[in-house]
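Practice set, problem 2.
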Amino acid sequence: MVRPRKNRRVWFEPGITYFKPRGIPLADMEEVSLAVDELEAIRLNSIEELGQKEAAEKMTISQPTLHRLLESARKKIADALVNGKAIKIHGGNYEMAARRFKCHDCGNEWEESYGTGRPVECPKCSSANIHRAPEDRGYVRG
């Protein structure tokens, strides 16, 4: 029996999910499917310039799994560019990361999904004295 796949944590949800070469009618075009977790691996490694170990930790996967995602994504992107195929970004085995906030007036802690903007007030006491939870900031103040 095969072990179920572990969800990969994704910190970015693509707003644009389809790319196609110019001048080729959509009806005649082949597509390459790029999973959201593959796109996230490329984004972390190539745009955020994280090493494979750091990117894997951020996605909560092993470094060899991240390496396989990168290889798969690069092969698909190269195939699309070289052979004039469209790239459709969808699916994959992922979960959106959430940001943690803490109210400094009542002590309430809660999560908000990425892409929803910064909360204006605490959902419990309506205070505006809210900040990212210390464990969610990526560093600890001394």
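Problem 2, part (b): a different protein.
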Amino acid sequence: MSEKAPLFKERGRTILKVVVFLLLLSLAVSRIQDVLGICKKTTYYAVEGLYEEKPGSLDALFVGASNVHAFWQPTVGFDRYGMAVWSYSVDSMPGIAIKNMIIEARKTQPDALYIINLNCYKEAEVTDVKLHRIVDYMHPSLNKAELINTMADAADIPLSKRLEFFFPLMRFHSRWSETIDWDFYHTLNGMKTSLIYDPYFKNIEDISDSYIISDSTDAPRDAKELQELDDLLAFLDAEQIKALFVVVPQAMDESDTAIMNYMAEQVEQRGYPCVNTQKNIEELHISTETDFYNLKHTNVHGSLKFTGYLADYLHEHYDFADKRGQAGWEEWDQAVEMYNARLVQYALPFEMEFASRDYSLEAPAIHGKAVSDTSYEVNWDAVEGADGYAIYRKVSGGKPNELLATVEADALSFTDTDLAADKAYKYTVVPFRSADGQTSYGNFSYTGVTRLKLDQG
């Protein structure tokens, strides 16, 4: 017995070394995967960030493609009503992935409302890139394996190639040249998946020629799209999951618009509510001329309108507790402060506060001219029905928009003085109406007029 004891002890040490080695190897491979995976920051924030949220804490998760995190800003919804609604979204997510995404999220958020981006069923094509986007940051599990096989079957990905989705290290050798600084120091953004990239904040694209509003309905051209939706509905029924479907507004041709309307009807016939903002975009007051940054995504102004509309809907139809300032919700309160600090650089204060609006007031044409090196005159055309105008200024260098002055309806110019030569100044003029002590703001030009730095001419 005494002779076997050292042997057992030695074997124990060997086993321990193997376990430690495998653990370190697993951590190393995981880190390499983080560095060389093909996912974007928004995916990392949405997928990895969810694992960081407290179990059972979220009111709802908005599941879908990139137009989810472009349209819905969680910190804005929290700031408005104290609701915690996560954007669980991945670029170009096809509808076939939604069921497994919900299964993954329900591991920690079983009682949440699941808001489903119905537009995903228009993006039915599955590719290896889309599959990597969805699974690269998911934690290992049988659900992840099922998702890989389901999507790989749909994309006819051969078994030999599927190994890279289970063991991503197998494909990393081809990505060294594509890495960027962020790959090496992943950090969660701290803003609860609220969007922060430049096109969302800065770009404006007129998509009116590509946007169709229609009540017509037509079944999908490919029956598998409807089958995938039917499979999801059967899953929701079986698991008794609270669900709300949403169609977000985006450029679509007549055929795709009819398909979305048809699917929305199918969902409602199965007993699930569906908010179809594609055909009801006028209720949101989102402009197809100014509120998008590309064909499928709203810019910051359109996003605030959509978030306010959906937040109002959720507040009216669901009993979400107001968690603002409550113990245990300090991270969300802090996220609101951080995100608002970004928003004020691009949105006017009344937009962020969801102040009363009067969209019948047209945006005034605005002009500007230098009076001297230190003063600048802003002029605008009269707007019918306006009681006055609010003049806002934004100084270059990340400063917020600030209200300079309000003037009465007969004043059509304002001169700003004591300007610095080394700064640029952007001016925005907003018409308003006043009644019963309330101010309602009209439309305005997002680009405004800018006095450039003097050395820029």
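Answer key, part (b): The chain has three domains: 1-29, 37-347, 356-456. The domain at 356-456 is CATH 2.60.40.10 (Immunoglobulin-like).
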